[in-house]
Amino acid sequence: MLKVLKIGPGQSAVVLTCDQCGKPIADPAAACYTWREHHTADLDDDAELHSLKALVSHPLYVDDGQVFTLHKGSCFTHFQAAHGESAYRWPVSPLVYLPGLLIHNLGMTFPEAEAHLRTLDERG
Question: What is the number of structural domains in the chain?
Answer without folding.
Answer: 1
